Structure formats: structure tokens, C-alpha cells
């Protein structure tokens, strides 16, 4: 009963995806540019496709997971005539415009298109912590939702094919910003204490503070940043202290410069509405 699936691209992520389908009992066809990467999967029961064309022919549901859109285009363009009637699920990381363009092109070839953003590393595939954002064809998503659940919790974010990539990149921005801040933190602490500091203090602190991101309903309406408990003028002074401490510890301040530079200017000016000026200044720096 389980629909057959084709996986094109067997890098670390594609291998995890193919393994999940094999474990779940879906007939699984695989193709990779470097054919040897399919060997272990074939030993576990996958069918090896000799060509991309054969891989597209083998299943109605085709999952594509390669390095970038240049690879996607290179694989699909010569096989456009094989796309009719297929549901193409492209899990390759990219920009919203690339997803829209590929979606329009694939649809013009007679395929249904779903773009996806994988919010997991390969070892998380098939676990409840993993989720994948999807956008594009709602009917294709509804038809194959059970099959998509094999990989990760599926989250359909809209019929505009670019929305999965947009949400994916936005979430990655949050992640990279957090990691960059954490690197600054451990640089301040120093290499000897960094590991212990990270486990016992930094991770619990970041987990607790993640909750302050949730805007209350009134603040969401007003578009304001919560400020009653922790006024921003107080926070500006704390951040100015971070930059000074970073300097005296010999740690680069570049990472936080977007926040600290305008804050120092405001504090130095010593007048105006600190809170409003600060938000404006940070907004300008980021833009
Ligand atoms: P890998 O570097 O492990 O694998 C890249 C894959 O792309 C290989 O199968 C490679 O083939 C193929 N490829 C590259 N260029 C071409 C080309 N020109 N033509 C055909 N195939 C090509 O990357 P991942 O598997 O980790 O990543 C794949 C996608 O998944 C990326 O878009 C990534 O952003 C996304 N992703 C990965 C995560 C991760 O933690 N790994 C997390 C979330 C998303 P070959 O083996 O022949 O080189």
C-alpha cells in the first residue's frame, strides 16, 4: 500500500531520507551522481536507478535533495519530459525566488511541486524533533502527507512555493545569530572554562530566554518590543558594558557591533527617548 518513493541526491541528508523510507517499508528507488553512495542503501533493499530519467520514471513521488539549485537545474532540465504526473518534492536549500522559479517550471512540465526546508540534521530524520516546512501544491501535500511524515513532522506554510525557503532562512538566521552570540560568550569566558560554562550556564540561560521572544497579544497588536520588565535604556547600558568588557578581555566586539555601536551613540548623546532612538538605530543598522 505504501507509495513508492524516489530519492535523487544521496549526500548525508539524502542518505538519511532514503534510509527512513526503507525502514518505513516504502519501495525506494535511489540515484546519486556518484553512484557508489547508493551501495549501502541498495544492500538494504533500495532499487538503484541507472539514470535520473529512470529515477523519475520509477515513482510518482520524487524527493530531490542535492547541494544547491545549480545542481537541481542540471538534473531536471535534461529530463523535463519525465516530470509529467510526478509530485516533485525539492528539499534542496535555496532562496524563495529559486523555489518559485523551479515550481513554475516544474508545473509547466506537468508536475506538482512542493518545496521543502528541512529543519533537522541527518541524524534527526525520522525522529519527533525533526520538522520540515513545505510550500507549493496543497493537493500534493494532502495526498502525500502520510509519506512525508516518515521523514519528519511536516508543516505546510502556504501555496506560494517560496514560503518554505523564506521560513527556513528566517529560522536559520535565528540559529546563526544565537550561535554567533554563544561564540562571543565563550570567548569572553575563555577556553579553560568554556565547556563547563556552556553546559551549566549558557544553554539553560538561552533556553529560558527563548521564551521572552513570544510577544503577548497586546504587544503583537501594537508592534512593540516588550519593555516594561526590562526597559531598553537599562539594556543599552548592559550592552555597553559587554563591549567594554570584551575590549578589556581582548575579545573582538564585531559580532555585536550592530547593536552596540548605535547604543553607545545614544548613551553618549544622553538625551532624547532612549528606547525609541535605540530601536530606530538598531533597525537602521540591520537594514
Ligand atoms: P552533501 O554535501 O552531503 O551532499 C550533496 C549532494 O548533492 C550529493 O548527493 C552530491 O552528489 C549532490 N550534488 C552536488 N552537486 C551536484 C551536481 N552538480 N549534480 C548532481 N548532484 C550534485 O550535502 P547534504 O546531503 O548534507 O545536503 C543536501 C541538501 O540538504 C542541501 O541543500 C542542504 O542545505 C540540505 N540540508 C542539509 C542539512 C544537513 O545537516 N546536512 C540540514 C538541512 C538541510 P555527489 O555525491 O556526486 O557529490
Automatic annotation (TrEMBL):
<dbReference type="GO" id="GO:0050661">
    <property type="term" value="F:NADP binding"/>
</dbReference>
<feature type="domain" description="6-phosphogluconate dehydrogenase NADP-binding">
    <location>
        <begin position="5"/>
        <end position="152"/>
    </location>
</feature>
<dbReference type="InterPro" id="IPR036291">
    <property type="entry name" value="NAD(P)-bd_dom_sf"/>
</dbReference>
<dbReference type="InterPro" id="IPR013328">
    <property type="entry name" value="6PGD_dom2"/>
</dbReference>
<dbReference type="GO" id="GO:0003677">
    <property type="term" value="F:DNA binding"/>
</dbReference>
<feature type="domain" description="NADPH-dependent reductive aminase-like C-terminal">
    <location>
        <begin position="160"/>
        <end position="273"/>
    </location>
</feature>
<dbReference type="GO" id="GO:0016491">
    <property type="term" value="F:oxidoreductase activity"/>
</dbReference>
<dbReference type="InterPro" id="IPR015815">
    <property type="entry name" value="HIBADH-related"/>
</dbReference>
<dbReference type="GO" id="GO:0140673">
    <property type="term" value="P:transcription elongation-coupled chromatin remodeling"/>
</dbReference>
<dbReference type="InterPro" id="IPR051265">
    <property type="entry name" value="HIBADH-related_NP60_sf"/>
</dbReference>
<dbReference type="GO" id="GO:0000785">
    <property type="term" value="C:chromatin"/>
</dbReference>
<dbReference type="InterPro" id="IPR006115">
    <property type="entry name" value="6PGDH_NADP-bd"/>
</dbReference>
<dbReference type="InterPro" id="IPR048666">
    <property type="entry name" value="RedAm-like_C"/>
</dbReference>
<comment type="similarity">
    <text>Belongs to the HIBADH-related family.</text>
</comment>
<dbReference type="Pfam" id="PF03446">
    <property type="entry name" value="NAD_binding_2"/>
</dbReference>
<protein>
    <submittedName>
        <fullName>NAD(P)-dependent oxidoreductase</fullName>
    </submittedName>
</protein>
<dbReference type="GO" id="GO:0031491">
    <property type="term" value="F:nucleosome binding"/>
</dbReference>
<dbReference type="Pfam" id="PF21761">
    <property type="entry name" value="RedAm-like_C"/>
</dbReference>
<keyword id="KW-0560">Oxidoreductase</keyword>
